[in-house]
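Next comes a concrete protein, fold included:
___
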Amino acid sequence: MNLKAMGQSIELSMIQKGNDKIRIEQKMNGMTQVIVKNGSKIMLLSPMYQELPEEQWTQIHSQVTSQDLNVNQLIEDTNNVIEYIGTEDYNGKSCKKVEIKEKTPSAESQGVEHVYIFVDAITKWVVGTQVIVKDQGTIDMIFSDMKKIKGFIYPGLISTKFNGQESASIEVTDYQVNIDLDDKLFEKQ
């Protein structure tokens, strides 16, 4: 993956084995950083070894995956109500617009006025999310250049826009599923 934000370009690699083993490599300006989550243990392996707290992992993972808004998590959360709003044009596609509302507002959602998910009316693929934040504006995450491999659908390009201006983009250059991964990739070397 290639992440571009604020004039910087970062080469990213993320591999995952099951739900509890994730390895993220970030290359920027000739330096490589390797961060691993192996069960409940979180480690910075490179440039030097350091154990990290869970909160730092959550922040790093959401930045790398551009998932400050996790669609599956929103849908599965039993505190949320899903409401169909109607059909709307979103990023040049006819989409079903769905709003996610919390039954009981949480501390994390303070200032969030609306959360929308846009689903392509033809393919039924999620093509974008939109969050409207009080006194700050609109944050759109647009999924495009959709690809399908071994039954998995993924965006080749993820663009983040703040009030209509692109603030970051991730180009997915390689995506593989169900490959054999050595457990040593998720351990201190």
